[in-house]
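ok posting inputs for the adenosine monophosphate job
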Amino acid sequence: MADCLFCQIVARRIPTEIVAEADGLLAFKDVNPQAPTHILIIPTEHIPTLVDATQAHTTLMGNALHLANRLARSYQLTSSGFRVVINCGPEAGQSVWHLHLHLLGGRPLRWPPG
Ligand code: AMP
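and the output
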């Protein structure tokens, strides 16, 4: 999608700090980090929101969670804890309409979120 920010990142037209690429997924550092570790995991395929993910994306979504697990381990977040978040839709604060998981860690995270 030419007008999608994250598709531009997938196409390497917008520079980012990429930390992993595997299984139809790309992981890169959030430009406006909300925690010492803040990584976004996106499908390279354009899927606007979690609502648009279908049963055909089951493996992809499982791989996304597995990649979050792997990154949490490599960023040494497993003992202290970490959070994986998908914002879906306007009231959840989704601002980029390309499905993404946030991996957040490295500081205490409050609950419930605001
Ligand atoms: P959300 O609000 O859940 O849609 O999350 C979108 C995230 O994308 C925000 O945390 C932004 O800081 C992040 N973001 C926006 N533009 C970029 C970019 N060019 N590179 C990396 N992260 C970005």
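notes: Helices lie at 5-10, 58-74. The first strand starts at residue 18 and ends at 22.
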